[in-house]
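Subject: for your reference before the review

Hello V.,

The reviewers asked for a structural picture of the protein, and I figured it would be easier to keep everything in one thread rather than splitting it across files. Below is the amino acid sequence we used in the manuscript, unchanged from the supplementary table.
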Amino acid sequence: MVGPSKAWTPLWLDILVAALAIAPLFYMAYVYPDLPQRIPVHWNFQGEPDRWTEKNFVAAFFPGLLSLALQVILWMLIRDLGAAVVETKGADAASGYRRMTLSANVQMFQPLRILLAAMMAMLTSHLPLSAEQNAPGWFGPVMAAIVCLILAIVLGGAWRVWRLQRKWEAEASPAIPEFRAENWRWHGLFYYSPEDATFIVHREIGVGFTINFAHPRVKVYALALAALLLIALAGVFAA
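And here is what came back from the structure prediction:
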């Protein structure tokens, strides 16, 4: 059987995303000694710096570290979604809609991870250029175009997932653990079922998927999210 990572993420795509996430860190390490004593930490829509701080390691490496942590989490999600698709058995309508719903989530995340990695890589390369007032004029429009493309993918993907999810819910048996009310906490916000080996489940409220918070893999995600939060907080205080 083909593993979930191979089934859902081509090797070239993983290599491309990894390069976009890691290369900016090497680039910043190369240019960091030559950065001026004041560096930008925020830019307006034209790509011009509008907030500065004293040169420090955290502020300079913040975009690259944030991008790397985010890409690790996205890779984990795509791998687990792919595994959930592979593990879905049965030829009934509910199983078919479950596979299609989870697949639609994967197909939405794949272009998003490329765009997010590209956006953060551009931001890292833009920092030293704008610090020296040599930033190209196309940076702002290109970043705005990427943000608009990300929003379009999210909205289009969410609409597709919502339609498939409604069909899945209509065909699913109420005896399935993730469709039983007693397994949901806080009025349907969190799914918690130690008896259910399923990790990825449909979202009771809203669109998309959530996780079984009683599953052992929650600890891995907790560590990854904690790292992401620490990086974000460090970036805020460094600025």
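For the response letter, the relevant points are probably these. Confidence is low (pLDDT under 50) at residues 1-7. The helical segments are 4-8, 11-31, 57-87, 93-131, 139-171, 218-238.

Happy to draft the paragraph if you're swamped.

O.
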